[in-house]
Amino acid sequence: MKNTIKSNQLKTAITSGLDKGWSGFIWMLKIIIPVSFLTALLAWSSWIELLELIFQPIMNFFSLPAIAALPLIIGMLTGIYGGIASMAVLPLTVEQMTLIAIFLLIAHNLIQEGIIQGKSGINFLKATLFRLVIAAVTVFIAAQFLDITSASQMTVDGLQSHVSQPFLKMLQDWGIITVHLIIRIFFIIMFILTLLEVLKSLGWITHIVRFLFPLLKIMGLNQRVGVLWVTAVIFGLAYGGAVIVEEAKNGQLSREELEELHLSIGINHSMIEDPCLFLPLGISAFWLWIPRLIMAIIAVRLLVFWQIFRKKHLS
Question: Sign (positive/negative) of CA torsion 225, 108, 211, 260?
Fold first, then answer.
């Protein structure tokens, strides 16, 4: 009897996961197709030259070409999917895409997620500024370990050939790149969302949360924020936002604890789905997971140090 119930629960979870995966995939297509096409069209046109005049001084700080501003801006405003769609059709090297991915994994969908953070314990502007500054610093440091010099020349050559090619050739290239990207993302999103539904159905999410609690000490966080931290790490700020907002309303966490939590999850949320979406671009898993973890640890500990200093000397 118990086996039958578990079997039915498992089937329901798989069906639910596939349904959610398909819905999420269709939603992503509505972003990926138009964004990637408009990006390809802009890169093919002479308008792309305007980017160099406007954004190159800023992009120099990140060791990136001016065209990298497109996926960065799109990702910051719309989210990971728009950033990936833009990256995929631009003549960028793996090294350059790695830096863009690191930035966007920390600082994406800033308006929506900033509002969620603002409703659950930290000022909207402070939360957004935290993420932008840490994303910029992380990319600057990571750039020192990547071969960006040769990559920049490859981008220039690739952009020149991209601009000079016939419109139909550009359209064909865009179609091939986009289809390949969509197929890869389809399997990733279906697998991840189905897996999460199965884990919830089997009751394993609770065990995973308990297993991850010891990591809180490494991250510099109090165990009282454990459930909220794990929620954001697994499901992200957008999906886990309701839980985070409701728990924060209970008033059981201090302002300092909420600041530490939001600084950590602002850097380190959606650690399963978001990094995986960049894998089809050929980016190393190391750069998609490790820099964020390290920066979250450092940032929280610096914040704690500042809180102690402020209490002792500024109060």
Answer: negative
Distance CA 209, CA 227 (A): 7
Residue 90 φ then ψ, to 5°: -95, 150
Task: Report the C-alpha gap between 107 and 98 in whole angstroms.
Answer: 14
Length of the chain: 315
- Reported as half-sphere exposure (CB side, CA atoms, 13 A), residue 195 has a value of 10
DSSP letters for 289-302: HHHHHHHHHHHHHH
Give me the DSSP letters along 2-30.
HHHHHHHHHHHHHHHHHHHHHHHHHHHHH
Distances (CA, A) of 221 to 106, 127, 200, 212, 268: 19, 17, 25, 12, 13
Q: How many CB atoms lie within 10 A of CB 29?
A: 16
CB 186 within 8 A of CB 29: no
| HSE-up of residue 143 (Cα within 13 Å, Cβ side) | 23
Distance in angstroms (rounded) separating the CA atoms of residues 97 and 211: 33
- pLDDT tens-digit map of 248-273: 666 677 888 888 888 999 999 889 88
Calpha distance 151→100 (Å, rounded): 13
State the Cα angle at 150 between 149 and 153, rounded to 5°. 95
Given the structure tokens 């140090």, which residue do they identify? 305
Percent of the chain with pLDDT strictly greater than 70: 84
Contact (CB, 8 A) for 91 and 162: yes
